[in-house]
Design goal:
Largest sheet of chain B: 4 strands, mixed
Helix content of chain A: 40-55%
CATH superfamily of the largest domain in chain A: Butyryl-CoA Dehydrogenase, subunit A, domain 3
Number of helices of chain A: 10
Helix content of chain B: 40-55%
Radius of gyration of chain B: 21 Å
CATH class of the largest domain in chain A: Mainly Alpha
Oligomer: heterodimer
CATH topology of the largest domain in chain A: Butyryl-CoA Dehydrogenase, subunit A, domain 3
Order of helices and strands of chain B: HHHHHHEEEEEEEEHHHHHHH
CATH superfamily of the largest domain in chain B: Butyryl-CoA Dehydrogenase, subunit A, domain 3
Distance between the termini of chain B: 6 Å
Distance between the termini of chain A: 38 Å
Structural class of chain A: alpha+beta
Order of helices and strands of chain A: HHHHEEEEEEEEHEEHHHHH
Number of strands of chain B: 8
CATH architecture of the largest domain in chain B: Up-down Bundle
Strand order of the largest sheet of chain A: 1-4-5-8
CATH architecture of the largest domain in chain A: Up-down Bundle
């Protein structure tokens, strides 16, 4: 089965689910999307080319698909797999944050650290609240990154039934639920100690997933805007014939093309076997995509709404399905300012000699 | 559909370009050590150094996409892209051969006669023959089809009369490819032709037009009844418009449309590393870096499209608008990141002098190669045609 035909089938499923409004019954909608993907044999297997996964998440962003596709395909699955945990089949989500985590079986014979700093196995009891977890109510399980009881990060897999939910939404009505954990016993087979690098990877993977969603939604903004300005007639001619409209519309297209290019480059860097030896390149490309996608949202949504006129400001036009999502997505998993600081710190610390090598992805890592 | 400009597919540079890129960087390190002036903004416009050009040519890096039988090394456009982006990022003095390498060479290869190819291309590739662009005139800027320069038939060729304007390097280069009207026509895009004109012809008179900085790169190029032999005609008579618009995708999408001020950012990072740099400064540097990296990916997409023979004029217009606006935004941003008084009279190469140069050149970024406001019309027309 080729990746391409799988992508086509998946895109067809997402196209069919397009008109579902996530605000109505998000958990059920997500379940339906998943069932349809499975029925069409379009659920990407774990070893799918990452570039194809990014393309599918772009498509989900374009359609406003009410399901955690980005969270599952680009974040939860690869992180769980990297940590050596079993990857569940259904929709997943990711969360991170401080929790109270203790060993279930404290190693009382250990002389390392205070009592409780070592367990006889990795099983944990965790308490605390994970805030605004995307699609939590629709996910079978949550991949959680937190600080372990012996210091250093751990990745654990929580099943949906183990958490109490306080439901919330983002600006587009997508589920962003708080998960309240009260002394949840997580068996050792669902806990892994992980290197600090995986925490960074979790951040940039989440950023890339958001960027892919934004790139897709930006394409929707362009399509809807072009359709509107070419069909809407005022003063006897289509809006698109006005110079002032052309100037703005061109900038809208440019900004959307810019983030599409950044996301595709990040996807390619992720997929390139050469970067396995150079994870910095994939990280830098993902940070750039996340930063530029978040940063471009303001201009894209401004122009799309301005050129739509009053109708875009209402539910009469589907434009809001794209723009309200983009207004939330740009801040979730890091605003552009957070990504800018991360990139800028890396550039300044690298010094003037390494700026250009980092941009080209060749020779940017001083240790090489 | 329409939106093929959104997501043309990421460009993976061929693996052999890694080696090539390293060779260029090693060459530049050696040049820097030998005292060649690098690190200047807008070096493809004002960095005229024929000796540097010849050293590049010795390595096969001028006209490198030209076929071997015409003196090139027959490497692809993506490899050429890697070489020129490295040279521009380093702010190397490449203006002498810039037009010859970017458009005169490819244009002569595509439209020239076998004799013209054999005469000009090996010289271009050797870094021994420099070209100017003879398109714009006083009343023909963005609206190129309105050129007034005329070539009329004579017994053994053509006589060329008119005045070209903004002709960069006409006072130091060898030839210009001049767009002239050869026939009046209802269709204003018909009846135009291109000619290869020897700038040292006694009937060619160049007159300086100084930039607002006082620098001399632009000229009037007065063509005072220049007698041209038949073999000065480039391509077919009447095909000038098609030939010129074909050149424009090459002219608009290259890395010189977003890297002109990068040397200033590089210098800034060097300055910041010596000071205590706060989170706000980091963020501003990160903003520029993210945008630069994204624009570069888009520009690479055009290079790949051109290499594959796909039309790229809408794409090229898009890159040029984004890239040249970025060149100016960069200059403004570095003023905020590290407030320093810009001084054109400071020692050459110091940070205040680089900043001054970038500021004084800033009106040009969004004008040259087609005014951005006009390019945006190309973008929206492209959208409508395909929607």
């Amino acid at each position: 089965m080729s990746t391409e035909s799988l992508l086509e089938r998946a895109a067809a499923v997402l196209a069919g689910a397009q008109e579902t409004d996530a605000r109505e019954r998000p958990a059920e909608s997500a379940r339906t999307v998943w069932d349809e993907l499975r029925a069409a044999d379009a659920l990407p297997p774990l070893d799918t080319d990452p570039a194809a996964l990014v393309a599918l998440v772009c498509e989900a962003g374009y359609r406003g698909t009410p399901a955690p596709l980005g969270e599952t395909l680009l974040a939860a699955r690869p992180l769980l797999a990297a940590a050596g945990l079993t990857v569940p089949d259904g929709p997943l989500t990711v969360a991170s944050g401080p929790l109270d985590a203790r060993f279930t079986h404290v190693d009382t014979g250990s002389r390392v650290g205070p009592l409780g700093a070592r367990g006889t196995d990795d099983a944990l009891r965790v308490s605390g609240t994970l805030h605004r977890v995307p699609w939590a109510r629709a996910a079978d399980a949550v991949a959680v990154l937190t600080e372990g009881p012996s210091g250093g990060p751990v990745l654990l897999l929580l099943e949906a039934a183990e958490c109490r939910r306080a439901e919330g939404t983002n600006l587009a009505g997508e589920p962003r639920d708080d998960l309240v954990l009260t002394d949840v016993a997580v068996p050792a087979e669902r806990v892994r100690r992980v290197p600090a690098a995986l925490v960074r990877e979790a951040q940039w993977r989440a950023g890339l997933a958001r960027a892919a969603l934004i790139a897709g939604a930006a394409r929707r903004c362009v399509e809807l805007t072009v359709a509107h300005t070419t069909s809407r007639v005022q003063f006897g001619r289509p809006l698109s014939h006005f110079q002032a409209v052309k100037q703005e519309e061109a900038k809208l297209v440019e900004e959307a093309a810019l983030i599409a290019a950044a996301v595709e480059a990040a996807a390619a860097a992720l997929a390139d076997p050469g970067t396995a030896a150079d994870p910095d390149t994939a990280e830098f490309a993902a940070c750039v995509a996340a930063a530029q996608a978040s940063a471009s949202v303001a201009e894209i949504t401004r122009i799309a709404h301005q050129l739509h006129g009053a109708i875009g400001f209402t539910e009469l036009s589907p434009l809001h399905l794209a723009t309200t999502r983009m207004w939330s997505w740009r801040d979730e998993d890091g605003s552009e300012h957070a990504w800018f600081r991360r990139i800028g710190r890396r550039v300044v610390e690298g010094g003037s000699d390494r700026l250009w090598p980092q941009v080209t992805g060749v020779g940017g890592d001083p240790s090489r | 559909m329409a939106l093929s400009v959104l997501g043309a597919g990421a460009v993976q540079l061929p693996p052999e370009t890694r080696q090539l890129r390293q060779e260029v960087r090693d060459f530049l390190d050696a040049e820097r050590a030998a005292g060649t002036i690098l690190g200047r903004p807008d070096s493809w416009l004002t960095g005229w150094d024929p000796a540097f050009t010849r050293r590049l040519a010795e390595r096969g890096w001028v006209g490198m996409a030209l076929p071997q039988k015409y003196g090139g090394v027959g490497r692809g456009n993506l490899e050429r892209y890697v070489v020129i982006e490295e040279l521009l990022a380093a702010g190397a003095p490449v203006s002498a051969h810039w037009v010859a390498d970017r458009q005169a060479g490819p244009s002569i290869l595509r439209h020239g006669t076998e004799e013209q190819r054999r005469h000009f291309l090996p010289r271009i590739a050797a870094g021994a023959c420099f070209f100017s662009i003879g398109m714009s005139e006083r009343d023909s800027g963005s609206d190129l089809a309105s050129v007034q320069t005329r070539a009329v038939r004579t017994d053994n060729g053509w006589r060329l009369t008119g005045t070209k304007m903004w002709t960069g390097g006409a006072h130091v280069n060898d030839y210009a490819i001049v767009l002239a009207r050869t026939e009046d026509s209802e269709d204003r895009h018909a009846g135009l032709s291109q000619f290869i004109v020897d700038l040292r012809d006694p009937h060619v008179r160049t007159e300086p037009i100084r930039l607002l900085s006082g620098e001399h790169t632009f000229n009037y190029c007065h063509l005072e009844g220049v007698e041209l032999a038949d073999d000065a005609l480039l391509g077919r008579p009447g095909d000038g418009w098609q030939q010129v618009t074909g050149e424009l995708a090459l002219e608009r999408s290259g890395p010189e449309r977003f890297l002109s001020t990068l040397p200033l950012l590089t210098a800034l990072v060097g300055q910041l590393r010596r000071t205590t740099c706060g989170p706000e400064q980091h963020a501003r540097v990160g903003r520029l870096t993210a945008r630069l990296s994204s624009i570069r990916q888009l520009s690479l997409g055009v290079a790949a499209a051109l290499e594959a023979g796909r039309p790229a004029d809408v794409h090229a217009a898009l890159v040029k608008d984004l890239g040249t606006r970025f060149e100016g935004e960069l200059v403004n941003a570095v003023r905020e990141i590290l407030p320093v008084t810009a001084r054109f009279d400071a020692t050459r190469g110091t940070y205040p002098e680089l900043l001054a140069t970038a500021i004084l050149h800033s009106p040009g970024y969004t004008l040259r190669g087609g005014t951005n406001e006009i390019l945006r019309g190309i973008i929206t027309r492209g959208l409508e045609l395909s929607s």
